[in-house]
Amino acid sequence: MTPAPPDHVVGRVSAVLRALSTRRDGASTSDLARSCGLARPTVHRLLSALAEEGYVDRDRHTGRWHLGPELYLLGEAAAPRYDVTQQARASVHRLAAATGESAFFSARRGDETICLLREDGDFPIRSFVLYEGARFPLGVVSAGLVVLAMLPDREAEAYLSTVDLAAEWGPAHRTAEIRARLARTRQDGYSTNPGLVVEGSWGMAAAVFTPSGEPGWALSLTGVESRFRPDRRPELGALLLKEAHSLTNLLRTGRTRPAIALG
Question: Which Gene3D superfamilies match (predicted)?
Answer without folding.
Answer: 3.30.450.40, Winged helix-like DNA-binding domain superfamily/Winged helix DNA-binding domain
